[in-house]
Each structure stands twice: as C-alpha cells, then as structure tokens.
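User: My collaborator sent over this chain with a note saying "see what the structure looks like." That's all I know about it. Can you take a look?
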Amino acid sequence: MDRFLDAGVFSTGNSGTQSPTNGKKPLPSTGVISPLSSPIISASISGGTRSRPTTQSGNSGIKESGDSNSVTIDDANDIERTERLTLEITKVTEQLLQAIANSDFDMYKSLCDPKITCFEPETIGNLVEGLDFHKFYFDTVLSAKASKPTINCTMLTPVVHTLGDEAACIAYILLLQYMDRNGQPQSVRTEETRVWHKKDARWQCVHFHRSGMPVASAIKSSFATSLL
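Assistant: Without extra context I'll predict from the sequence alone. Here is the result:
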C-alpha cells in the first residue's frame, strides 16, 4: 500500500480530472494525478500489464496475507529441520562418547575427521591436529579396559547450534562414572564442545574443546595396583 501512495504523490502527467467551472473556460490540468484516480500507475508499479480498478489496495492486502502465510510455512519448515539436525547431532555425539568408553578406536575414527583439532587438558594448552594423539590413549590407557570395571558416560544439558544443513556445534556436560582401585565409585565432570561437519552424507567431528580433569588420569586411577 505504501508504495502505491508514494508513487501517486510523485507522479505527474499531461492529463487529469477537470473540475466544473460555472460556465467559464476550463483551466488546464495541473498534471498532478492522485493515487486513487490512476489505476494504470498502480498496475504498472505492481507489475501488471493492464489497468486495474482503484480497489487495487484491497488486492494488495490479500497478497500480503498470502505472503505472511508463506513465511509461516517456511518458519515451520526451519523449525522441523532444526529439530531433526539437533537429534542427529545429539545421537552421533553419544555414539562417539560410547566409542571412547568401549575403547573402540575404529568406531571413534569413523566419527572423526582425519585432521580433527582439539584443545583438552591432555594437550596442556596446545592445539593438536590429527588422530595419532588420541590413538595413543586407546592403545595404552584404554587398552586395559577389559581388566577394569566398565566406565559409564552420561551427557547432560546438550545444546545444539545448527549452522546450515551440513554443520553444527554441540555443547554439553559429561559425567564420567567409574570404580577406583579400591572399589569405590567415583565421578568426573568435564565441559565439552564439539563441532560436526557432514561429509559424504556422514557426520564427522572436526574439532572439540574439553575442560576439566584429564579423563585419562581418571581412567588410570581405576586400574588395579598390579596394572600400574
């Protein structure tokens, strides 16, 4: 509606509606065309090819209503897509944590980008790239898992930020439960953030940041004395 009003105010021409002159010679038109007396202007501005009646403003209101409905549908689709991606990222993160708890390096490797980067207590402030750093712990600390109690991982309060259809970030609290060498239950809390990227229809972790106690130290403390 506003664009029609603006167009009417600033439009000029050589024809217009003449007012009665009481028998006197009519004065020439000033050339100013009111927005409501110029259906051709309205039709041209709105992209039409023929004149339309002055009720164009009413049609404009209907069109705006249609646009609003379209936006609502798009918003609903965005919400559905976000919920679906959130579930996918939460599930794949749980799978990665389970691979660590089960000492399953093959599964861990399949869920990580070959050039994965990380900051974690074990890196002592350095940015580490690649899987070799993590494989060391699977080959040493985690390789003795069969000789110690099962470790239980619980992911709490996950928050997922979707970055399009092929990238997402998840932040959460990880509670690690285990039995120490004296048979006493212990728990360790860490704060983790992981960045995921979908490649070839598969999600892969490309970066993570973990703070808190080194998990390797906690796991090591659960070994029997004879294993140390």
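A starting point for your reply to your collaborator: Residues 74-227 form a domain with the Nuclear Transport Factor 2; Chain: A, fold (CATH 3.10.450.50).
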